[in-house]
Amino acid sequence: MNKLKMHSPNITDENVAKLAEIFPNCVTEGPNGMSVDLDLLRQELSDHAVEGPRERYRLDWPGKRQSILTANTPTKNTLRPCREESVDFDDTENLFIEGDNLEALKLLQENYLGKVKMIYIDPPYNTGNDFIYNDSFSTDKEEHDRRSGVKDDEGNVLFDEEKWQKNSDSNGRYHSDWLSMMYPRLKLARNLLREDGVIFISIDDNEAHNLRKICDEVFGEQNFIAQVIWEKGRKNDAKFFSVGHEYILVYARNLLSIREKGEIWREEKPGARDIWDEFLRLKNIHGDNYDNIEADLGKWYSNLPKSHPAKKWSRYRRVDQFGPWRDRDISWPGGDGPRYEVLHPSTKQPCTIPEAGWRYSSPEEMQRQIKLGLVAFRSDHTEPPFRKAHIRPIPGEVLEISCEDDYEIGEEYDDIGFANQVRGSYFYKQSQVAVKHLRDIMGAKVFNNPKDHEEISRLIEYTTPNDKKSIILDFFAGSASTAESILKINSNCGTNHRFIMVQLPEPLQCGTISGSAKKTSQAAIKMLEKIGLPLTISELSKERIRRAGKKILEGECHQDWNKDVGFRVLKVDSSNMADVYYAPEEMDREQLLLMDDNVKEERTSEDLLFQVMLDWGLELSLPIKVEEIGGKEVYFVDDDAIAACFDRSGGITEPFVRELAARHPLRVVFHDGGFEDDGVKINVEQIFKALSPKTEVRTI
User: Fold this and answer.
1) Could you tell me whether strands 116-121 and 193-203 are parallel, antiparallel, or unpaired per DSSP bridges?
2) Secondary structure of the chain: what % helix, strand, coil (to 5)?
3) Are residues 244 and 359 in the same domain?
4) I need a surface site. Which of 173, 182, 249, 660 has the fewest CB within 10 A?
């Protein structure tokens, strides 16, 4: 039987294999396996003779090549389940991964390849006191100084070293380390996105320009969507300009795919629901007397405070049987539209045709719109009519399908959205709103700059118009604002989006700590311990999700939501397998004889199960059941996706194997040392071929 590899995929090998299919002459055998003749490949991709490297438009920095190599290098690490820190471990579809997000992204490559609809991240902004990632691929100082010109090849100082170090905002290493941290993570994240997936990245002015360039390289400049400005408030103590904004960079995995699917992003106009509720209240009073409803609705608009969002939409003051509406231009956008006669209903004379032509392509479509009640005529034919736009559009407005004349407000109407709008690339919301919200949940100020879960909710709802059960990833989870936003959307809208949060167990920096401190002060530790709050950001994240989920369930929830507020905690750790598993040829015979097991002593069967799930590329949120068969503990993943028995006592017999084969699992895995004898081990594959021929059989 073949063994599972028990490590993440080697992306370099996969890329070489893909190149070999297209350019077989460029791939040949090398000392370490297949290699690419880059000179030949350059020639294959050029329409003229290639003599050597040429200047081209791109972003380079010391350490870039190593960061690419690191992104492609497989990891032997694994994810170990932690039931005691999870919520509803067996049934939840949400994941919380604790550990370095670079390792986590590598481990997720096969399991979630092309499955994530949306990624939102809020990475370190490289302000000088928040950059804690120190990846092994970052160049050491001597190598960096040589590449960037601080020292020559002999180590001679070319610039004033002390001056270089003090000017941290402009030296190459300051930006290079940050770029080397971000680049491989973005490369790996792109693999996880669906073809119609999108990524949102919060950033400030320190690295916005560099982030834009590496995103152009990783995702493709053609997949850039927007650079949104988030204004958070004015700083009156600023000496020159108040820089109170951040950015959100938005890229698609494949913008063409989104367009081909006809996906259009819109959001409900703020205040539209309030207008509708007031209309229903007035209709209950006045019935079908729309003149009285219009008069009272006008008074309601006038009495609204300026800050009320519905004040902006006071043009929706006319009323008919479909609710409040406003007039819209009926001419063809851009001019040169169709021209035909439209008779006025009272004068029976042709109405004046708009200079740009009619909005509707044919007389038949115009008559259909008139029949729907979506065209309002003026007092006579000397002026063109106008279109009606309702605060809650009827089907003909939104979908352009036929509708009965006697269409009335009812349950079917309730399923139609309110008037919507495309989002602008600028919005304002104070940052203190999110700070206060997190303080209210946790009972203390435990995080300096949490992201606003309501704004993230808006982004998710805005970019998943056709999805009810998307996977949403945040691999810089921070205080877990993204997780709470997903739970809130699901509760309000009846969606069942799932989250994957990844967060390093970084020491917490709460409000009592100096902004430049990297370790929690003793005063802060005592405060946190006194009120029972966690000391690391990952622990804070988990506790926030627990508290937010409990609070959401206490309120009114949408009937279509599955009420999943749980999460399965998985922790990045070294492989469950001893070194002998990966390189038995490097150990002599005596060492092998001394090895009792190829699994580390402290690792459990459930630990092994999750590494097997990683190896086979299954989603890590699949349901798991444990059954006893023939006195042996057997794990079943998603009923028949995997049957796993990691018994190491040598008690796996042929009757047991036959009973397991009768369950017809798609995959089955055994511990290599669990068989009664070599005869049983040899016969396992034959038993499955006879009783369950489609089952894939492996050992570890």
Assistant:
1) parallel
2) 35, 20, 45
3) no
4) 249
Examine residue 580 and state whether it is found in any structural domain, yes or no: no
Kindly tell me the sign of the dihedral angle through the C-alpha atoms of 344, 350, 355, 361: positive
Total number of domains constituting the chain: 4
CB 62 within 8 A of CB 51: no
In a domain, 586, yes or no: no
Which is nearest to 646 in space by CA: 684, 599, 683? 599
pLDDT on residue 506:
84
Model pLDDT, residue 466: 86
Give phi and psi for 313, each to the nearest 5. -110, 30
Q: Please tell me the predicted confidence (pLDDT) of residue 55.
A: 59
3-state DSSP of 447-508? CCCCCCHHHHHHHHHHHCCCCCCCEEEECCCCCCHHHHHHHHHHHHHCCCCEEEEEECCCEC
CATH of the domain at 209: 3.40.50.150
Contacts of 619 (CB under 8 A, 6+ apart): 111, 112, 115
Do 184 and 288 fall within a single domain?
no
The closest alpha carbon to 621, from 469, 519, 507, 460, belongs to 469
504 and 621 in a single domain? The answer is no
Residue 345 CB-half CA count within 13 A: 10
Range of the domain at 104: 67-266+426-574
pLDDT score recorded for residue 18: 84
User: Cα-flanking dihedrals φ and ψ of residue 145, to 5°?
Assistant: -60, -40
The amino acid that residue 451 corresponds to is K
Helices vs. strands in the chain: H and E counts, helices first = 24, 23
What angle (nearest 5°) sits at the alpha carbon of residue 249, between those of residues 453 and 259?
100
CA atoms of 13 and 488, how far apart (whole Å)? 42
User: 234-274 pLDDT, tens per residue?
Assistant: 777 777 887 888 999 999 999 999 999 888 898 888 889 89
Q: Where among 574, 600, 635 does a domain terminate?
A: 574
What whole-number distance in Å separates Cα of residue 531 and Cα of residue 76?
39
Per-residue CA distances from 584 to 4, 587, 595 (Å): 14, 6, 11
Dist CA 89 CA 626 (whole Å): 13
Out of 402, 421, 440, a domain closes at 421
Q: How far apart are CA 453 and CA 488, in angstroms?
A: 9
Question: What confidence tens digit (pLDDT) does each residue in 153-194 have?
Answer: 455 543 343 333 332 444 446 788 889 999 999 999 999 999
- Residue ranges for the chain with pLDDT beneath 50: 129-130, 134-141, 143-153, 157-172, 398-416, 511-520
Tokens 């999805």, residue? 467
230 and 333 co-located in one domain: no
Dihedral Cα 284, 290, 291, 293, nearest 10 deg: 40
Residues 456 and 380 in one domain: no
Whether residues 239 and 277 share a domain: the answer is no
